[in-house]
Amino acid sequence: MKKINLLVLVLLAVFVLSIVLTGCSQPNKEQQQQNGASNKTEETKVKYPERSINAVIGFAAGGPTDLIGRGILPILQEKLGVGIGITNMPGASSATAASNVLSQPKDGYTLFFGSEIMSIWQTMGVIDLNPTKDFIPIKLVAQAIPVLAVPPDSKFEKAEDFVKYAKENPGKLRIGTAGPGTVPHISGLLLEKELGCKFTFVPFDGGRPAVTAVMGGQVDATIEMVQSMVEAYKANKLKILASFTNEPISGLEKIEPIGKLYPALSKYLPYGPYFGLFAAKGTPQDVVDVLKSAMDEAIKDQKWLDYCKSLYLVPIDYSGDEAVKFLNDWTSKSAWILYDAGGAKHSPADFGIPKPQQ
Amino acid sequence: MNILLLIYMTVGAIIGLIMGALPGLTVTMTIVLVVSLTFGWNMVDALAFIIGAFCGGVMGGSISAITLNIPGTAAAVSTIFDGYPLKKRGEAANALSIALFVSLIGGLFGIVFLVVFGTLLGEVALKFGSQEYFLITLWGLTLIAVLSKGNILKGIAATCVGLIIAMIGMDPITGLMRFTFGSKLLGGGINYIVAMIGLFGMKEVFVSLSSKKTFKIENERYRIRDLFPKFDIIKKTLACMTWSAPIGAIIGLLPGTGGDIGSLVAYGFTKQLVKNPSRPFGEGAYEGVAAPEVANDAAIGGAITTMLTLGIPGDSITAVILGSFYLHGILPGPTFMMTQKNYFYLIIVFLLISEFIAYFLGILGSNVMLRMLSLPKWYLIPFISILCVVGSYALQNNIYDVLFMLIFGFIGYLFEKAGFPVSPIVLALILGSMIETNFRKALIITGSMGSLLASFVTRPLSLILLIIIIATFVTQSLILSKMEKLENNR
Fold it and tell me: What's the pLDDT at A7?
C-alpha cells in the first residue's frame, strides 16, 4: 500500500513540475487579455515592452548564430530598456526553436533570432515554415561571407586552377562543408551549376570541423565562413582562394572575389548566410514598430559595428518590405539550387517558392 | 584587484560545481550562463570567472555520478561504472575522495601539457581524419565487454538498441529523416544526455520504488576526513593515472571529442592494462573511478590547447569559451601564443588556481551531498525525480525531452528487471553517431570501400589504432577463455 502511495506521490511531483515548467515559459493569460484590451480602447501605442523579452536562438551556444545574437541583443536591450533573455534551443536545424516561438502568444515577448537555415526548412523537409510567411522580419542585421579554402600545401594557388582541375576531373575534388543543405554546401552546388564542374561533398558536423579537415589536408578544400578561417589564413595554415562576393572583403583585400573571376556567378552574389531578429506572424504592428526603431538605433551603435568588423561580418540593415524581398529572394535562390542539384527532399514549387529571376 | 579575481574564480567554481553536479545542467550550459553574465566585463575578469566555472563544472559532474547514479555531465558517465557500485558498498566517501583528488591531478597534468606541448601538439589534432575518429570510437565499443557484467550477449543486445536509437532523426550526411515515423518530435534525434538522465537517474527512482529495500545505505558513517585522499588507495591508482592523464589530454585536444570520450577511452585502457584491480571492474574498482576522472580533467588542458593554438574548439565547452573570446574581440589562432602572450599566461595561472579552488569546494560539496543521502527515501526520491525532470528540460528548453527522459527511465527499469545492463545503451548513444558519420565521411573521402580499407593501413595513425583494436580483441578473448577454463577446472 505504502509502495503505491509513494509511486503516486512521485508521479504527481513529476507531473506538477512538468506543468510548472511549461507554465513558466508562457506569460499569464490575464496579462495578455489586458494587453488586448488596452489595444482596443486606447488605439494609441501599446505599452511595449513592459517586461523582459525572451529571444530564442535555434543553435547551441558558441555557434555563429549564437555569437551574432549575443553581439546585437545586449545592445538592443540597452535601447529598449528592458532585459532580453537569450534561450538556446538547439536541434532539428532550429525547427524546434521556431515552432516553440510560434506556439507562444504573439505579443512580441518571445522573439526568434534566426539565420539562413530558415530558408531551406521547407525544401529540405525539416518543417513547413517559411521565413516571411510565418515570421515578420524585424531587422536583418548581418551577413557572413563564405570563402573557398585549400590546405597549406595544396597545389592550387588560384581559384581558376581549382575550377579548371575540377572540370577536367569531375568528382575528384573533395570539398568539406558544414552539413547537407548548409550555405557552404549550396555555395559548392552553385559552382557546379554555373561553372559546370563536379565535386564530392564531405559533410561535417558544423563549420569548425570542416575547417580542421582542410588545415590537416583531410579534404581538398573547404567552404566556410571567413571569420572561422581568418586566423589560420594569416598564419599560413591554409590558403583562401576566393570569397563568395562580388567585391573584396574589407581588411582582406588579397582574397579574390569569385564574382569578378566568373561573372556568371555574380547575380547570385554576395551569397552568405543572413542573421536577424524575427517576430511571429500576427504580432501587433505597434510592437513590431517599437522593436524596429530600437533595432535601427542598435545597429548604428559603434560597439556593434566594431564587433562586425572584428568578425568580418557584413552589417546589413533590412527591415519591413525590403527584408521580405531580401528573404524571398534568398529563399528562392537556395531552394532551387538545392533542388536542381538533387539535394532537396521537396520541390520548392510545392511551397510556392518561385524560381529566381534570371 | 587580485583579491577580486580570486573571488571571481571562487564564485565561478561554486556555480560550476552546483551546475555540474545537477544532471542535465552540463558544463557547456554553465559556461554559456557565465559568458552571458560577464558580457559587459573586461576580458581578464570574465576569463577568471569562466575558467573557475569550467574547472568547477568538470569536478562537479562526478559527485552526482557517484552518489546518485546520475552523471552530472556526460564526461562523468564512466565514473558511474565503478563509482556507484562503490557507493552501494558504503564506500561513497572513498570513491569521492579518489574522484576529487585525481581530478585535481588530472587537471594539473592538463595544464602542464598545455604549457609544455601546447604549440607542438596543436598540430597533432590536424592529423586526425575521419578514419582515426572512426577507429577510436569503434574501439570505445569494446567497453561493452566490461559493462555487460558477465552476460556478453545481453550486453551486445543492449548496445544494438542504443545504436538504433542513435540513428533516430536527421541523417547527418544526406539530411533525410530516419526512424522518425513522420513525427516532428523525433526529427531532432534523441539527445544522449536526456537518455542518460532517464536510464540512470529515473531508472533508479523506478527501481527503488518497486523494491522494499530502502534507498540509502543503512548506518553509513563517514567523517569529513574521509573525503581527503588516503595514501593506500591513491597508491593503487597511481599506475592507471600514468596513462589515463595523457589519454585524456590528447583526446581533449582533438576537435569534436572532449572529456566524455576521453574518460571512456581511459576507462577502457585501464580495464585492459590493470590485470589485478582492487576489485573486478564494474563492481567498485578504485582504478575504475580514478581513470575516467583523471582523463576528464586532463581533457580541459587538451581542449584549451587546441582552442588557443588553432582557434578550433577541442570540445563543446571550449566552443562556448571561444565564442566569448570573439565577443571580447580576441580571435585565438595559430599566432595567439606570440601576439597575445599575456592572455596565454593569464589563462594558465587562472587554470592552476581554479583547479585548487574547485578541489576544496568539491570536498565541501560532497560533504553536503553525502549528508543529503542519509535522508529517508521519501524525501530523496522526489528530489531525484525533480532533478531528472528539471535537468532534461533545461538541456534544450524542450518539454518533450522530459517525456523522452521518462520513457528512457521506464526502458531502463524494464532492462534492469530483465537482467539487461543499461550502460551499453548510453555508450552506444554517445559513440553511435560518431562511428556512423565518421565511417561514412571516410568512405566519401576515399571514394570506395577498397581504398577506405587500404587507408586504414596506409595512414600511420590509423594503423596504430587498428593494431590496438586487434590486440584488444585477441588478448581479451584469450583471457576470457582462460578464465572460463579456470572456472571449469574448479
Answer: 61
CB B333 within 8 A of CB A234: yes
Query: What mean pLDDT do residues B340-348 have?
Result: 84
**Fold observed for domain A50-144+273-351:** D-Maltodextrin-Binding Protein; domain 2 (3.40.190)
Q: Which tens digit of pLDDT belongs to each residue from B232-272?
A: 888 888 888 888 998 888 888 887 778 888 888 888 888 88
- With vertex at residue B215, the alpha carbon angle to CA B213 and CA B218, rounded to the nearest 5 degrees, is 80
Scored b (16 or more CB within 10 A) or e, A175-212 reads bbbbbbbbbbbbbbbbbbbbbebebbbbbbbbbbbbbb
Residue B24: list chain A partners with CB under 8 A. Answer: none
What was the ipTM of the complex prediction? 0.76
CB contact under 8 A, B444 and A124: no
* Contact status of B169 with chain A (Cβ, < 8 Å): yes
The percentage of residues in chain A with a pLDDT greater than 90, rounded to a whole number, is 4
The 3-class SS string of chain B reads: CHHHHHHHHHHHHHHHHHHHHCCCCCHHHHHHHHHHHCCCCCHHHHHHHHHHHHHHHHHHHHHHHHHHCCCCCHHHHHHHHHHHHHHHCCCHHHHHHHHHHHHHHHHHHHHHHHHHHHHHHHHHHHHCCHHHHHHHHHHHHHHHHHHCCCCHHHHHHHHHHHHHHHCCEECCCCCCEECCCCCCCCCCCCCHHHHHHHHHHHHHHHHHHHCCCCCCCCCCCCCHHHHCCCHHHHHHHHHHHHHHHHHHHHHHHCCCCCHHHHHHHHHHHHHHHCCCCCCCCCCCCHHHHHHHHHHHHHHHHHHHHHHHHHCCCCCHHHHHHHHHHHHCCCCCCCCHHHHCHHHHHHHHHHHHHHHHHHHHHHHHHHHHHHHHHCCCHHHHHHHHHHHHHHHHHHHHCCHHHHHHHHHHHHHHHHHHHCCCCCHHHHHHHHHHHHHHHHHHHHHHHHCCHHHHHHHHHHCHHHHHHHHHHHHHHHHHHHHHHHHHHHHHHC
Q: Report residue A21's pLDDT band, with 50, 70 and 90 as the boundaries.
A: low
- The verdict on a CB contact (< 8 Å) between B334 and A71 is no
Long-range Cβ contact pairs of B167-170 (< 8 A, separation 24 or more): B167/B432, B167/B433, B167/B436, B169/A92, B170/A92, B170/A93, B170/A126
DSSP annotation of A252: B
Interface contact A307, partner B, CB < 8 A: yes
Summarize the confidence of residues B292-310 as an average pLDDT: 86
What is the distance between the alpha carbons of residues A197 and A320, in angstroms, rounded to a whole number?
38
pLDDT band at A151 (very low <50, low <70, confident <90, very high): very high
Q: Strand pairing partners for A143?
A: A274, A314
What pLDDT score does A357 carry? 66
Domain ranges within chain A, ordered by starting residue: 50-144+273-351, 146-268
Asked whether the predicted pLDDT for residue A23 surpasses 70, the reply is no
User: Do the domains A146-268 and A50-144+273-351 match in fold?
Assistant: yes
Q: A232 vs chain B: nearest CA distance in angstroms?
A: 6
Q: List the single best residue of A4, A9, A11, A14 to mutate versus B (max B Cβ within 10 A).
A: A14
Q: Give the helix/strand (H/E) hosting A138.
A: strand A135-143
At B208-241, the pLDDT tens digits run: 888 766 545 544 556 667 777 778 888 888 888 8
Tell me the pLDDT band of B411, cut-offs 50, 70 and 90.
Answer: very high
Give residues with Cβ within 8 angstroms of A248, minimum separation 6.
Answer: A255, A256, A257
- Any B CB within 8 A of A88 CB: yes
Query: Is domain A146-268 given the CATH code 2.120.10.30 in the classification?
Result: no
